[in-house]
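sry for the spam today, last one i promise. struct tokens for design, 227 residues
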């Protein structure tokens, strides 16, 4: 398949990620990021893998990153993060990490086979490494998509409980004034003040900068918390 030029541009209101490698880990990361409201470009040299996922992500490209000038048309500088999830070829992983670093991508995550490989990836520029034995792709994607989340729990297949820092625009306002249920479709169930979590919430109490709120929210509205 002839390589296409990426025309995916950064949108101001959405996070954007490039996922290299569509094994089980990479695919689960890509699909969960899409589910979380991000824009996702996936890259793999396997045509069948690209075809299988092309209608489920923002952009899918068949590219062998070990080829000369492989990164010229990918526009990595437009992305908030790069996930390196390729298996079986450490050279491909290294050149991808280095290319993302050169393009000044803010965050680079790499899947490592073992602790030794993790050290190597971090040495060449990965900001974080994970191993499939300890970090599932879905969990990693949720942490990426929700970088301002302090904790994240699945209550069911649809409902999530999330602890999130009080936003600057919430400071000094009360829960009654904010009406988060109406405007963000979330229900506040607890507030953490001075390190202590309390469910004794008064609707007229003001929120402070150093506090966090525990909310229950439908997963389809998770992206509302990313602003």
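last one done:
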């Amino acid at each position: 398949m002839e390589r296409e030029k990426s025309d995916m541009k950064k949108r101001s209101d959405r996070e954007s990620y490039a996922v290299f490698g569509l094994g089980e880990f990479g695919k689960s990361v890509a699909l969960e990021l899409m589910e979380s409201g991000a824009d996702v470009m996936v890259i793999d040299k396997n045509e069948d893998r690209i075809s299988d996922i092309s209608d489920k992500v923002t952009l899918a490209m068949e590219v062998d990153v070990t080829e000369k000038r492989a990164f010229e048309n990918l526009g990595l500088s437009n992305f908030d993060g790069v996930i390196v999830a390729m298996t079986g070829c450490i050279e491909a992983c290294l050149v991808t990490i280095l290319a993302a670093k050169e393009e000044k991508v803010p965050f680079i995550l790499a899947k490592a086979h073992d602790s030794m490989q993790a050290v190597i990836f971090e040495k060449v520029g990965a900001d974080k490494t994970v191993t499939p034995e300890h970090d599932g792709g879905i969990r990693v994607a949720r942490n990426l998509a929700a970088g301002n989340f302090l904790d994240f729990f699945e209550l069911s297949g649809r409902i999530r409980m999330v602890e999130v820092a009080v936003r600057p625009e919430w400071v000094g306002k009360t829960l009654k004034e904010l009406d988060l249920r109406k405007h963000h479709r979330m229900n506040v169930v607890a507030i953490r003040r001075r390190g202590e979590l309390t469910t004794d919430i008064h609707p007229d109490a003001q929120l402070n900068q150093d506090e966090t709120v525990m909310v229950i929210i439908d997963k389809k509205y998770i992206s509302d918390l990313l602003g």
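The domain at 16-145 is CATH 3.40.50.720 (Rossmann fold). ok im logging off now
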